[in-house]
Design goal:
The protein has helices at residues 5-25, 35-59, 62-92, 100-128, 132-149, 161-169, 193-217, 223-244, 254-277, 287-308, and strands spanning 182-185, 188-191. It has a two-stranded antiparallel ribbon with strand order 1-2. It has 10 helices and 2 strands. It has one domain. It starts with a helix and ends in a 13-residue tail after the last helix. By secondary structure, the chain is an all-alpha fold. Helix 4 (100-128) packs parallel to helix 7 (193-217).
């Protein structure tokens, strides 16, 4: 897959344009995001991802388009797990409802920039070392085991060392000043909680990326597709946060489904590594099967979760993984 420089540039410019448009249209007047507005924007971002998949099919071929769709579905589903932690962070920083969309927007931009570094490193490793897939596959199997058994662990909203480091070395204010990142405290410029919660969202996402990026590389080894998969998933994640807010408590078996998906991709990577570096005759899992498997696991996980909690009446946020 030969991606010209102009396409990389156009993609980045397009993403920046979408972010700016979001700021102008949606976030010009900060307000609490309702489920109906969130649903409309989820449809917008999913439609944009499908249109991009159609472009990939036209420009690069249907094989790469299938890789993008499978990677997007997997990344989007893995990103849902982030929402639990995002809710805890929002609560910890007591973010006003009308500022939460701005927090997620800037936090996602920070997260995408940090993920881009990991994607470049991952692509470089794959290009230079054929055995990298062995490492990624083993890591994903270990991660799947951790995710499977981590369903009852409480998230630590104070566990972001980088945010603690910033707060201990720079003057901070305990009070919000609208959407401003800094304010005056006793005549001295200080960071507001708005700035700290944005850093918390962006840098905490990096921990999730350590799992999801190797998983996407299990679907496609093309850095361009891995980057765009992450971009579309993260951009749509903000709206999904408001759409599913209050309903995430019903996804009781989400961690189980995500663990199964991660384990499947880990096995897929190990098989591909054996196929590429040895003379063993091992099966290689095709993209169409990966796509069907991911969709099937998500459907079963959702159905079982909803059935299991149908009489609970739970709308509160449960413990996150």
């Amino acid at each position: 897959m030969d991606v010209p420089a102009w396409l990389w540039g156009a993609t980045i410019v397009g993403l920046v344009g979408v972010i700016c448009l979001d700021l102008v249209i949606v976030d010009r007047h900060p307000h609490a995001f309702g489920p109906k507005q969130a649903a409309r924007w989820v449809v917008v971002y999913v439609t944009l991802a499908l249109l991009f998949a159609a472009f990939v099919a036209w420009y690069f071929g249907t094989t790469y388009a299938g890789q993008f769709v499978a990677g997007y579905l997997m990344e989007y589903s893995l990103s849902v797990d982030n929402l639990f932690v995002f809710m805890v962070i929002m609560t910890s920083f007591a973010v006003p409802a009308e500022l939460q969309h701005r927090v997620l927007l800037v936090g996602v931009v920070i997260a995408l920039a940090l993920r881009a570094v990991l994607i470049v490193l991952g692509a470089t490793l794959i290009e230079r070392f054929a055995g990298t897939f062995f490492l990624f596959g083993a890591f994903l199997l270990f991660t799947a085991w951790q995710v499977w058994r981590s369903g009852d662990e409480e998230p630590d909203p104070e566990g972001n060392g980088f945010v603690r480091w910033v707060g201990s070395r720079l003057p901070t204010s305990p009070h919000y000043d609208g959407s401003r990142l800094t304010t005056l405290v006793a005549g001295r410029r200080a960071l507001t909680p708005m700035a700290l919660v944005m850093l918390a969202i962006g840098t905490t996402d990096l921990l999730f990326a350590l799992d999801s990026i190797p998983a996407v590389f299990g679907i496609t080894s093309e850095a361009y597709l891995v980057f765009t998969v992450n971009a579309f998933a993260l951009m749509g994640l903000r709206q999904l946060y408001f759409l599913l807010q209050g309903l995430l408590g019903r996804l009781a078996y989400l961690n189980r489904g995500l663990a199964v998906i991660l384990a499947f991709i880990g096995v897929k990577l190990l098989l591909e590594a054996l196929h590429a570096t040895t003379d063993f005759h091992v099966p290689v899992i095709p993209i169409w099967f990966s796509l069907v498997f991911i969709v099937g696991v998500l459907a079963v996980t959702t159905a079982v979760s909803v059935y299991a909690t149908r009489n609970d009446g739970r709308t509160d946020t449960p413990a996150a993984s």
